[in-house]
Specification:
about 190 residues, mainly alpha, 9 helices, elongated, single chain
Amino acid sequence: MDAKPSRREATHDRIVETAARAIRRAGYQGVGVADIMKEAGLTHGGFYAHFASRNALLVEAVERAGQDGLTNMTRHMAERQAAGASEFRALVESYLSDAHLVGAEHGCPVAALCSDIPRQAPEVRDASVLRVQGMVKLVKKTLPASAAADAAMVIASTMVGALQLARALGNNAQGKALLKANRQSLLAQHDQPD
């Protein structure tokens, strides 16, 4: 039996969950301790009972964002695979979807944070780099063994860049067209139906 989390653990988890959404919505710099605590329904004063610093919170938040993003992506991929899509097609169609275009707060932290990663403190940067590496591993897992050694890196870069550019254009015909063009190109080049 799993023990019910203590009140302190539940509160800590709520802060991390709130920060994980906030960093994907507003970037690392958009995460202020007071704002996160307020959004979590807590007082600012309780922050240091849970975290040694803002950076410690950011490390946990990016880890949580990565876990949540992977869980959501895996669920969407499973739905597409159940409908007959290859694993690669399911990944591309899920990642470069209209829903992901508007769902930054619940989506991939790599696309939401990529340009900010180099400017972070070492511990935050290291945690973020693990998310980038995880993205490449996820893509690689969907490719046949015969795929070029660097294919997963190229495909992950294409997908992240396409999502970032589509978000820059907005949830409109241009943004959706950019996603569609990238989906079609990636599938034409790399999809190996089961």
